[in-house]
Amino acid sequence: MTTVSKFPLLQLPDEELLRTIRVMDFYQIMSFSLISKRCKQLVQSLQIKTKPEGFNVRIDTCISLDVFFPRRTIKIFLKSCDNNQTKRLKAPLSVKVNGRPLERIDFTYSDWLEHFQTIFHMSIYLDIHNGLCNYMLDDIAKGIGAIEHLFVRNTGCFATNLKLFQKLPPAEKLTIYSNTFQDFKIPLNILIQNYTTLVILGFPPTKMTLDELLVVNSKEIKMTQVKFSSQDLNKFIKFWMKGSNPRMELLLIFTFNDFQYERTIVMKGIKASNERRGGTDPHRRKDLYRMDIYRMDGTRATISFYKRGFEISTEFHHCAIEKCISH
Amino acid sequence: MSVENAPVVDVDEAAIPVEKKMYYRFESNDKKEFRVSELAIQQSETLNRLVEAMGYTSEDVENKPAIAIENIDGKTLKLVFQWCEHHKGEAIPVDDGSVPKIVEIPEFDAKLMDIDNGLLFKLIWAADYLNIVQLLNVSCKKVANMAQGKTPAQLRRVYLLPSDEEDEAAKRAAQEAQDPRAREVEEEFEERKRQGGNSFF
């Protein structure tokens, strides 16, 4: 029998105790954090910094977490049952960090998620894919704290998709596929939430109405492969000038084909000034038409028409068209 | 001015003062004496400040008693000064706050720290007291390396870490030992709450 070499770590001076944890590698630090609440608090106190939006959680038939640090990325993988995926499991079968196993027998999915989020001090980018039904949504929701960016795809079950929004804590940004909901209709109670950024991805290409656009309460509204009628856009601009959608700083509607909104219809009856073509910025496209409009409170907005897109950007927004497109 | 254009001057070598190396004398708590060079002392922020404040001359060092380091024993202090002499003149590392912090243990340090865990523990305490940053980095790295390839359960045994239950029990025991009336006050408070009283005081 081999004797285990022992070292009274907690009896070191506080500073040297933390120094010892700091010089461990990531795997050792994470293993250490799982020993007890006190060990977790010690790791927390190291204030390990990830990159912005540096904690991505992807949920499909398993849960994978990517944690981005300035010099490296670690991949954490929570493995579910192989054969019987309909069976609801409270705990993953195994947890691996860059291929090396982590152990904590009594930890459920939510405990693992909460643990990682706590020790890395990060609000998360949560990416939900098909397969979520296999997990206990309540259990996952319980383990997830602040969500910086929620990315929802169709989980394969409309009821679960809806339930997600009831169970998960509110997110700062929401990216959503239109096929997440029946008939590609995003519920108004989701559109009305005051996200910082709302991104709607039309999959397949989706039509939205004026009423739906009027309830959106986000600062940045970005839509890809989503179409409105030119008449609806015309009415929307008029409503905005009268005070509708007061939080909106950017509305960007973008399509992949060469569709172009009919300028004369969209701007019919709207008093615009400073109409210009192209831009002084070298990145500006030649087919760009821009003009300024003013809301009743004096806020200026620039309307831009270009091949494949339309944008309303208020003077409070700093995002230019090409920046949004490049994203 | 380039090297080629520099004026050539004959130097009277006898006129150049020879810089005398100064060795300070230190004494451990078990009365063992050590002579340590001025340059080696610079690795320790604590000792460096101490000798600067004392302003000893070479004669003072010889005539006055050795500087006592009362909380470090001779065996540990020998290791500390061996390390300082080997690394004298090296720059003191500046902490960049990164986690994990990358630390390599040089061969000399690895051999020096080929010691039992009890002495390693004393060495870290000594390096902490004397504030020798790089010695702390390598000695803590040596302790961190004990975690390699270990599961949390194995780590608990290696580092003698209490479980949550043991921590709770210790906390309760400490509270009770500190204030024997604490439980009574708590019970009284609970009782008043049960009776529906809003004001405890």
From TrEMBL, chain A:
<dbReference type="InterPro" id="IPR001810">
    <property type="entry name" value="F-box_dom"/>
</dbReference>
<feature type="domain" description="F-box">
    <location>
        <begin position="6"/>
        <end position="52"/>
    </location>
</feature>
<dbReference type="InterPro" id="IPR012885">
    <property type="entry name" value="F-box_Sdz-33"/>
</dbReference>
<dbReference type="Pfam" id="PF07735">
    <property type="entry name" value="FBA_2"/>
</dbReference>
<protein>
    <recommendedName>
        <fullName>F-box domain-containing protein</fullName>
    </recommendedName>
</protein>
<dbReference type="InterPro" id="IPR053222">
    <property type="entry name" value="Zygotic_Embryogenesis-Asso"/>
</dbReference>
<dbReference type="Pfam" id="PF00646">
    <property type="entry name" value="F-box"/>
</dbReference>
Automatic annotation (TrEMBL), chain B:
<dbReference type="InterPro" id="IPR001232">
    <property type="entry name" value="SKP1-like"/>
</dbReference>
<dbReference type="InterPro" id="IPR016073">
    <property type="entry name" value="Skp1_comp_POZ"/>
</dbReference>
<dbReference type="Pfam" id="PF03931">
    <property type="entry name" value="Skp1_POZ"/>
</dbReference>
<feature type="domain" description="SKP1 component POZ">
    <location>
        <begin position="26"/>
        <end position="88"/>
    </location>
</feature>
<comment type="pathway">
    <text>Protein modification; protein ubiquitination.</text>
</comment>
<feature type="domain" description="SKP1 component dimerisation">
    <location>
        <begin position="134"/>
        <end position="178"/>
    </location>
</feature>
<comment type="function">
    <text>Probable essential component of SCF (SKP1-CUL1-F-box protein) E3 ubiquitin-protein ligase complexes, which mediate the ubiquitination and subsequent proteasomal degradation of target proteins. Regulates cell proliferation during embryonic and larval development.</text>
</comment>
<dbReference type="InterPro" id="IPR016072">
    <property type="entry name" value="Skp1_comp_dimer"/>
</dbReference>
<dbReference type="GO" id="GO:0006511">
    <property type="term" value="P:ubiquitin-dependent protein catabolic process"/>
</dbReference>
<dbReference type="Pfam" id="PF01466">
    <property type="entry name" value="Skp1"/>
</dbReference>
<protein>
    <recommendedName>
        <fullName>Skp1-related protein</fullName>
    </recommendedName>
</protein>
<dbReference type="InterPro" id="IPR016897">
    <property type="entry name" value="SKP1"/>
</dbReference>
<feature type="region of interest" description="Disordered">
    <location>
        <begin position="166"/>
        <end position="201"/>
    </location>
</feature>
<keyword id="KW-0833">Ubl conjugation pathway</keyword>
<comment type="similarity">
    <text>Belongs to the SKP1 family.</text>
</comment>
<dbReference type="GO" id="GO:0016567">
    <property type="term" value="P:protein ubiquitination"/>
</dbReference>
<dbReference type="InterPro" id="IPR036296">
    <property type="entry name" value="SKP1-like_dim_sf"/>
</dbReference>
<feature type="compositionally biased region" description="Basic and acidic residues">
    <location>
        <begin position="169"/>
        <end position="194"/>
    </location>
</feature>
<dbReference type="InterPro" id="IPR011333">
    <property type="entry name" value="SKP1/BTB/POZ_sf"/>
</dbReference>
